[in-house]
Amino acid sequence: MSDLTNFLSDNPIIQITLTDAKPVIDRIFGRETRLIVMLEEDECCQKSVEAHIQWEGEGCEGFNRLEQFDKEFWLERAREVGGILMFDVRLVEPERLRPASEPRKGEQ
What are the distances in angstroms from CA 10 to CA 6, 13, 14, 41? Predict the structure, then answer.
């Protein structure tokens, strides 16, 4: 098993929160929005999970939607996970606007 899988197994409230968050993210950001979940470790070896909402729209609109997500879902649940789960928005290049023959940034 991966480190993330092990961490989620040891902290089931995070998995439950992520599962509960997905329909809310789909409603606010759109059903095709990807959620990238990563295990992070700080300089003191404290582990946490970061959930990156991949947003292909305008930057300001993505952050407005994150604020809506916070109000409708996250603020009520943040204490339950003891600071070991964080949500944020990552702006990404829209897939539908890039020609299929054009490589992604960093790919050659």
Answer: 6, 9, 9, 16
